[in-house]
Design a protein that fits this description.
69% of the residues lie in helices and 2% in strands. The chain is mainly alpha-helical. It folds into 2 domains: 1-34, no CATH class; 36-282, no CATH class. Strands 1-2 form a two-stranded antiparallel sheet. Residues 8-14 and 16-25 have low confidence and may be disordered.
């Protein structure tokens, strides 16, 4: 076989070992190129970004689809609920919050490490697919950053009170009257993250594998799409933190977050709105 005649990996080029092919146009694979700046930014960091993202969003879906409905089904079994919170939710929240940091960090490193990532960003001449790609990845990035902020500034901040209360009650102490309100705040932010996640993941994948092929935009249209999308995101985030009528049950503005089924419907509706905007301005 031709590959049996190949030299050691450190000496491989297309001429000496054709089966290996290219890493990038014009660059033959060598040991050094496996871990050069381009390979680190374009593959290794992306791989870690995806791995961390699977952990983070997977746990987000676990909390919303499994744990929250499961705890509600406990009914009056307060001890069982508190045991679940202290022994299961605490561990899940550790992986959840640090996976969000790992996802955010690797994403930012991709931008910083990959050569020329920001070159002509959303500023390509004429109607260009690169402008459409840059616009949707920008919205996806901002969604991811906002979701990570929700994890640390709302969800984890309030869940610490809930966990401390559960541990205190199990030890025979008095319940913290603020625990229910803190749990409600964490729930609303978690459901908002769930609503955002569908569009965020679509843009993360679609920017390179869909929008760069099927869409194009001028700089003006790309920015218009981005700013309208971010205005919608801002309104939804403000709604989730109770700006429009508070956080108590019964506020009709909070319908998207009152059950995981409502959040699923809302996430699809938001995706449809965003997709429609992209067709209007970049289709």
């Amino acid at each position: 076989m031709a590959s049996s005649a190949c030299p050691p990996l450190w000496a491989v080029t297309l001429e000496t070992c054709p089966p290996f092919g290219y890493l990038e146009k014009g660059n033959f694979m060598t040991a050094a190129s496996l871990f050069d700046q381009y390979a680190i930014g374009n593959f290794w960091l992306r791989y870690l970004h995806v791995l961390a993202g699977i952990t983070w969003i997977g746990l987000l879906y676990y909390f919303n689809f499994v744990q929250v409905p499961g705890l509600a089904a406990y009914g009056d079994e307060g001890k069982a609920r508190n045991l679940t919170i202290t022994h299961i939710a605490t561990r899940a929240l550790w992986w959840f919050r640090w996976a969000s940091i790992a996802t955010l960090a690797t994403g930012l490193l991709i931008v910083g490490v990959l050569p020329d990532y920001m070159q002509n960003f959303m500023n390509h001449a004429g109607s260009d697919p690169a402008n459409a790609k840059n616009a949707v990845i920008s919205v996806g990035m901002i969604l991811g950053i906002l979701m990570a902020a929700n994890v640390w500034m709302i969800i984890w901040k309030n869940q610490k009170v809930v966990i401390a209360n559960a541990a205190n009650v199990l030890a025979g102490g008095e319940a913290n009257p603020d625990a229910a309100t803190c749990g409600r705040k964490a729930l609303l932010a978690s459901r908002q993250n769930m609503v955002f996640s569908v569009s965020m993941l679509f843009y993360m994948v679609g920017s390179a594998h869909y929008y760069s092929e099927a869409f194009e935009a001028t700089t003006g249209n790309a920015y218009t799409f981005m700013f309208i999308s971010l205005a919608i995101v801002a309104l939804l985030e403000l709604n989730a933190v109770g700006i429009f009528g508070g956080i108590k049950a019964g506020n009709k503005m909070l319908w998207p977050y009152e059950s995981h089924k409502n959040a699923i419907i809302s996430s699809v509706v938001l995706w449809v709105v965003f997709f429609g905007l992209s067709v209007v301005f970049m289709g």
